[in-house]
Amino acid sequence: MNAALPAFGAVAERIRPLVQRLPMQPPALALAAALNRWLRPRLPADALPALSNRCVEIAVTDLGLRLRLQLDPRGFGLASASAPVALRITAAAPAYWRLMSGRDDADRLFFERALVMEGDTEMGLILKNTLDAIGPLWP
Question: How many domains is the chain partitioned into structurally?
């Protein structure tokens, strides 16, 4: 494990009370912009129907974030507050980093219980398989 990760945990613990009081729209918009830049251009056309127009909630447990996103023909954007969550993905920030940087895959994080997916199983599998096929979003 990276020696910097325990230091992040201490920082996350300190800022979590503040983060939880802030509106979730700005970080959700930032995540949507990042996904539109690094993931959307690489999504295969056959995966789009299963992933589109459904709310996905990304929960970052150590920071207290719950970001609700939706993919539509224009790309990733905010999901309506009233939209039912089709898929919830829960992990601490370091686990997401390990997944997106290719250090670990979703299966390993799932079996370590570092990543939890709840909701539509088919959508979750399509998303997992798509991310596996794409590979790391950044080095």
Answer: 1
